Amino acid sequence: MTKAIKFLYDCDTGIDDAMTLLYLASLVQAGEAELVGVGTVHGNVHPLTGALNTLRVLEAAGLKAGDAKAGDQGVPVAVGADRPMGQEVHYAVEWHGTDGLGDTHLPEPAGRPVAEPAAAQIVRLARAMPGELTLLATGPLTNLGAALLLDAELPSLVREVVVMGGAFDHPGNITTHAEANIWHDPEAADLVFAADWPIVLVPLDATHPTAVHDDWLDRLAAHDTPVSRFAARILDFYIDAYTPTLRRRGAVIHDALAAMLAVDPDLGEYAHRPVRVELRGELTRGTTVWDARSLPDEDTRRPVKVAVGSDVPAFQERLLASLQSF
After folding, report:
1. Which band of pLDDT confidence, cut at 50, 70 and 90, is reported for residue 110?
2. Average pLDDT value for residue range 104-120
3. What is the dihedral of CA 286, 10, 260, 195, to 10 degrees?
4. Which listed residue (46, 96, 177, 254) is catalytic?
5. Long-range contacts of the stretch 295-298 (C-beta < 8 A, 24+)
6. 236 among known catalytic residues
7. Does pTM top 0.90 for this prediction?
8. Among residues 10, 12, 16, 255, which one is catalytic?
9. 218 is annotated as an active-site residue
10. Where is pLDDT greater, at 104 or 39?
């Protein structure tokens, strides 16, 4: 039997993060994964709002929040950085609503965030489970960058880092070149890509082709269970925001692809190249840059495993099945 993956999830819980939490919760319920903690960061919303959203989603999926330091069972949800390392903070209310869940204004969750900051939680759990953690990050990388500054040995303690972010041969979604998660904190992202740990980067090149459209959305809505209704409800706002970009009704659930590739790497296609983030360019700040010349000896950075494509039908079917599994 395959050993359950231990996920520590760092996110800025808006709508696609929420869908990813539901996917992870389905794996937990099936015994295929452990969710050992969640940390939230600025990005789509303020990290406290993101933490409360995380608790709402976990509770909708039947998972209990907890605080291991206080002896509680359950998933600890930690609040992280509320601003980037080197620029002003920005939120994505036009994509996720003022509450991060499509202006659904859901009731307060029963659980509360833990007192431990998200970066400290990363370090503590990595030290408690050396070589076991898959660190999944689908928001700005400020918490990961801060954790690296807290503990220089962190890269040797983590099994794998899987990041949704960046754009290479695909246009950016904030500027012409920059993708949102990297653009929100370029300095932190560059720290993460410079660290000596195994990274899988899932950029817009891989996520954008996975857009779901009417048939998928109608199948989700037709599955009349509390979790499916919850997912369909929060997706409504996201679909309205995405439809002009896609030029048809639909949405791109970026973050779920990163989670799915962490579980099943064979679902993706990859290139292996060092990655840097442009920090100074007036027009290009926040852009991810790789050297496509295939000259690894000329770069001192460890190559990043960059997803350049995926099995789109398999992704869409597995995500739908996970949402219908509750």
Report:
1. very high
2. 95
3. 60
4. 254
5. none
6. no
7. yes
8. 12
9. no
10. 39
